[in-house]
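Appendix B. Raw example, untouched.
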Amino acid sequence: MNPTPAFRQALAHLAGAEHPPRGLASSRQDEYQFPWSRPDFSARMLAVHLDEETHMASRRPGVIDRHVDWLCSHLADRFPGAGRPPHVLDVACGPGLYLHRLAGRGFRTTGFDFAPAPLAWAREQAQQQGLDCRFLELDLTALPPDLHRQMEPVDLMTFWFGDFHSFSPQQVASFLPVLARCLRPGGVFVLEYQPLDHFVQEDASAWSMEQSSVFCPAPHLWLQEWGWDEDRALETHVHWILEQDSGKLQRYVQCHQAWSDQDLITALDRCGLGDPVFYPPLAGADGEFEFPVLSTRRTS
C-alpha cells in the first residue's frame, strides 16, 4: 500500500526530527508546554482530571483525601495567627479537587490555573456545594508582580504533583518571589517535588495505537520519546500524534527540570522561604505518581 502525500510528509518530518529529543533549544518557552489554555485540549484534559481510575492528571480521590488529612493534621500548628479560618492558595489548581475538600473543612480557599475547562468545572462545583472557593485564571509564567495586593494574605500555599518541574530555572526565578510575597510572615509553602534520582536519566521511546487521547479525539498512532540532558539535568518528553485517517502529524513537547535538594532549598531561600522540612510521599501511592514533599515557611 502506497502512503498518501500527507503520510509521506509526516514520515519525512519524523525522520528529520532530532532523536533523541533535546529541549530548550529555542528561547520560546511555550514550545515546551502543552496547550493547556486551548479550549479543545482543556476539555479533554478535564476528562482525564476527573477519571478516578488514573493518576495521569489529578490523583485518585483516596490519595487526595490522604494529602488533605496530612495538611490538616501536620501543619495546623504552623499556620500564622489564630481565631480565623486559614486561607489556602493552590498553585496550578486544575479542577480544584484539593480546594473543594479543604473548603469543606472550613478553610478559605483560592486557586489559579489557566486551563479554562477545569477552572469552569471547579467554579461550578464550588457554587453547587456552597463552598468558600475562589478560582482565578492566571498564567504562572506571567503573574502580575502585585499579585499579593490582589488577594487576601495566604496562610498555606500548595503546589502539587511535581508540576513545579515543568518550568525552567529562569521561569522559577521569576514566579517564585511573586508567590512568596502572597504568604503572610510565617505562612507555609508546601511543594511536592520529584527528586533528582527519581528521573529516568536515559533516552527511551514507546508507541501505541489509540482510539482517542487527550491529544486527539480520533484514532491515532502515539509515538513517545524521552531524552535526558545530563549537563542541564533536563528531561525532554515528546509526543508525536499521527492521525490514522488524515495523516496529520502533531508534536507536543514537555520539558521537566530536575533539581538537587540543595538547589531547591537555595532557590526557595532566595525568596524568603526558609526552615525547610522534607517529608516522604504522603499517601504511599505508586512512586511514579506521588513524590516527596518539601515544606518551608516565609521567614522574611
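End of appendix B.
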